[in-house]
Design a protein that fits this description.
By secondary structure, the chain is mainly α. Helix 10 runs parallel beside helix 17. The longest helix is centred in the last third of the chain and has 39 residues.
Amino acid sequence: MQQTHEPPHSTDSERIPLSLIGSIVAVGSLAFVGILTETVMTVLFPELMVEFSVNTATVQWITTIYLLVVAATMPLSSFLNRRFRFKALFVAAVVLAVIGSLLMIVGHAFALILIARVIQGVGSGIATPLMMNIILQQSPRSKVGRLMGVGSLVITVAPAIGPTVGGAISSVLPWRAIFVIVIPIVLLVSLPVGLKCIRQSRPTEDAQLNPLQFVAIVLALCGLIFALNQAGIAVSEAVSGGSGAVRSTIVAVTSLIVGVGSLLFFGWSSKRSFSPLIRLGWLRDPVVLLHLLPYLLMPIVGIGFGYVVTNVAQLSLGTSAFVAGALVLPGALIGAFFAPVGGILYDRFGAPRPVLAAIGTATLGPVLLLIFSMHLTPALLAGFYFIFGLCYALGYSNIMTSALSGIDREFTPDGNAVFQTSLQFGGAVGTALFSTILGVAQAGAGKEGSAAFRHATAVGGACVFAVMIVICVISIISLVAAFRLRARRA
């Protein structure tokens, strides 16, 4: 039964153990490395397009396939949480992160780079929900908001510094140097801290993996993302007068049917399975569903913003990769460090006021970007993104905390799996959607660097900012409805 959130008073018995902080840092740093490398690659897209001789629609798969694999792995987190010990999952994530980084260092074919991103995505798909499960299961009730904020801090600092790191590295070193750097971080920091601090808070179960359901959810996620990607290619081909529009349209429609059909089958099968991959009964509550929708939609904007800002800066404003990456740094970095503040506000005031105020103010970012879209300067681009990045970090993690506060703790791993999958899927949609919009705008606009190409990129950016505003408004309406329904129940 859904219940209102009433922040309990702290007591001495609810002090946060140092081992819990160490666990969060150790496991979160793995997610940090994965997201860091993902955002580093985003700012390097123009360079990678030249090195591997691929276009915009193709190179974005370096980011999209990573986010998609993370999203496909996260539905396993409920099963993994019940079946295996935390420390075993942590070690597996470390091994995958190192193997993926080694392949990125030695890989000189685009296909091998994608394979490396798949391996890294599996590692991050294990690590991120593991960190959240540790927080949700081991935190004192009165501190869960601020600790969720700390967890959000660990994994949101990466997108803050990723574009800047990528731009800096590309200006002085080969881009592969970033993967040489992250391996010692994982082996010398994450691994020893995790082995010392991670504790098992609940006994394991003899849970059984349902392979049919797992295949169904993977097909659903892949089908939906591939449908979006192919639809974008079809539109680009049609605009530029290419011959592949019909073929891409057929592939997009087929992928959409496969994706939607697989998702419906997954839901149907889960209701009838004795040991489902994810228990979904708690999703019958409309309050939870109204939280889940904005948790899915807002990462489309939040993660997609890094791609849009850095590419508009380079391809429309003519900045270097380093400057483009630096434009994201103030908003994302300050926002990341304010994530625990959002958690403290949640513990103090509950969810409605902190969440609605933060997401509502964040919407001003894309609104101002749309207004000034044809007259942007690097300073305006950075300043308007700063508004969004700060407020997004203050409110976003509290959406999941609020939703899961009303379900039984037994189903917390299932809720965590669904919400984390939604986050990663939303991020994958954002990168694919916004790269498609920019690609369509750029189609037939001449060579990169020309005045026509820069203008076309600015027009594409304006369209992206308009889509961002629509997404933010839908999210706010959904949250208002959720909080009103919860208040009426109280």
